[in-house]
Amino acid sequence: MIAGAVAMLAIGTASAQMQAPRNLEMPVAQTAAQQGPMGPVSEFLPATGQDGVWESYNGPEGFGMRNRTDSDALRYFYASNDPADAGKRKISVQIRAVPEGKIGGEAGLLYGYDAATGNYFLLCINQDTLSLYRRDETGMNMMMSTSGSVRSGEFNTLTITEKGSYIDIALNGSSTGGIENDFTGKGAVGIAAWGTGQFEFTDFSIKR
Predict the structure, then answer these.
(1) Reduced to 3 DSSP states, what percent helix, strand and coil does the chain have, rounded to the nearest 5?
(2) pLDDT tens for residues 125-168?
(3) Buried b / exposed e across 177-207, counting CB within 10 Å, b at 16+?
(4) Is the dihedral of CA 70, 153, 130, 89 positive or negative?
(5) Are 41 and 9 spatial neighbours (Cβ–Cβ below 8 Å)?
(6) Which of 122, 43, 98, 105 is nearest to 70 (CA)?
(7) With a cut of 70, which residues of the chain have pLDDT below it?
(8) Pick the CATH number of 6-15+28-207 from 2.60.120.560, 2.60.120.20, 3.40.50.300, 3.30.230.10
(9) pTM surpassing 0.70?
(10) Quick one: CA dihedral 88, 166, 178, 16, positive or negative?
């Protein structure tokens, strides 16, 4: 998406088990101009405050979420894109994830969200691991995972670059591989946090 273009935003909140199907609330779409450190989602991120298990904090340097109690809780925000941009986008965000609790959470990019089915991908980091998940009618399934390159306690840059239906996945500027299937190269994109921890986001962008 080109800066200044009109974007549609939706938010969702859910609880889920790692390998069990999720019943997500359908997000409510709104309209916003792309601006601020969080790009197309800036205008619709909540103000600082508490909403259920999620504490949000919003400032000039970015957006943060914290969940201290529910290891299954999932929250996301997404901006839909002009279908003409599908397969041509570069989606990026800087994220610092500080997991808490016995299991610990993770956070990163929501990708390929399909409003008709509620299915999507999550590209997330925790303290030391980058993982790609696919949520579909069978539940949340891990597709790939790599460890050793996450900068623990620091901001890490997650990037998905579309080349048609193929997507390349990069962490801090280095490619970690890619995938191609019937669900890649299209769909809404945004940010997500899953489980317990403190998660900070900045510099979210969608470029063509």
Answers:
(1) 5, 55, 40
(2) 999 999 999 999 999 999 999 998 999 999 999 999 999 999 99
(3) ebbeeebbbbbbbbbbbbbbbbbbbbebbbe
(4) positive
(5) yes
(6) 105
(7) 1-35, 80
(8) 2.60.120.560
(9) yes
(10) positive
